[in-house]
Amino acid sequence: MTALTAHAGRLRWALADGLTLIGRELSRVRREPGELIAALIFPAVMVVLFGYVFGSAISVPGGGDYREYLMPGLFAMVTFTATMAVTMRVATDASRGVMDRFRSMPMARSAVPFGQTGAEILNGVLGMAVMAAAGLLVGWRAHRGIGPTAEAFALLALMRYALSWAGCYLGLVVKNEQTADQLMPLVFPVTMLSNSFVPTGGMPKVLQVIADWNPVSALTAACRGLFGNPGAPAASRTGDLAWSVAHPVAATLGWAVVLLAIFVPLSVRTYRTRGR
Question: What is the pLDDT of residues 64-120, one digit of tens each?
């Protein structure tokens, strides 16, 4: 019982410190609003750019409006590219000695990565709201009602949170904001080699296999099905599709669990040992 009480006390301590650091990240956004404004403008620009540039050039399998086909892919793309924002923040704090100051304070060692990733969820919710508003303006709609729509946004938030832990670990490893900035372009091939913008059926076989098992494709397919948008995997064709695309909700949940299981302990351990 004593050990259980001590464990509960440490957990409350870590939670309180983590909430304090989430507040610190939000206060930094208030002092430097340019970063938040840029992060919110980027998704809206992507909606308009891809929707109108590609909208007249790409046909949707089975018919339908391309902008409705596109929006779930853009939601997934922004979810994955946001990983690098966490990497940049963590690397910046590490290079400027902020992490060392945190480590010298009487605070839970797990609070710093929890604070960084928790703040990213709040930023992500705001970003998804802006992107959804931009999508509505260009003609996108969610057709299956409140429940499936909420489930789709919950999947996006869960994947963003899981990826934020990967970004946190990467930021702790590179320890340099210039290096983190140079890594940003590496995310785009991952998001482009998927079903986000075009069907994978026209790709060469090797690339099609990679794209179908890409977690971006699973998240995109899950959102298309939950939103009721064109391009969702048809129940009659699931036997012809890769498992991750035929069962995209389960695949997305699996990817999120794997990412959390790997990067939560890695991030916490790396933060604890970095100053030794």
Answer: 788 888 899 999 998 998 888 888 888 888 887 777 777 777 676 677 788 888 888
What integer pLDDT is reported at residue 116 of this predicted model? 81
Q: What is the residue type of 78?
A: V
Both tokens assigned to 68? 């409705």
String of DSSP letters for 164-227: HHHHHHHHHHH--HHHHHHHGGGHHHHHHSSSSSS-GGGS-HHHHHHHHTSHHHHHHHHHHHHH
CA proximity to 51, closest of 80, 79, 75, 82: 75
- Taking only the tens place, the pLDDT of each residue in 123-142 is 888 888 888 988 888 888 99
Half-sphere exposure of 264 (CA within 13 A, CB side): 12
114 burial level (CB within 10 Å; 0-12, 13-18, 19+) = buried
Angle in degrees, CA 242, 245, 248, rounded to 5: 140
Rounded to whole angstroms, the Cα distance separating 187 from 80 reads 8
Cα–Cα distance between 61 and 69 in angstroms, integer?
Answer: 9
- Which pair of structure tokens corresponds to residue 241? 């599709």
pTM: 0.86
User: What DSSP letter does each residue of 190-206 carry, written as one string?
Assistant: HHHSSSSSS-GGGS-HH
Would you give the end-to-end CA distance of the chain in angstroms? 33
Q: How many C-beta neighbours within 10 Å does residue 49 have?
A: 11
User: How much is the pLDDT for 117?
Assistant: 85
| Helix-, strand-, coil-residue percentages of the chain, each rounded to 5 | 80, 0, 20
DSSP tally for the chain: helices H, then strands E: 13, 0
Whether the Cβ atoms of residue 231 and residue 199 lie closer than 8 Å to each other: yes
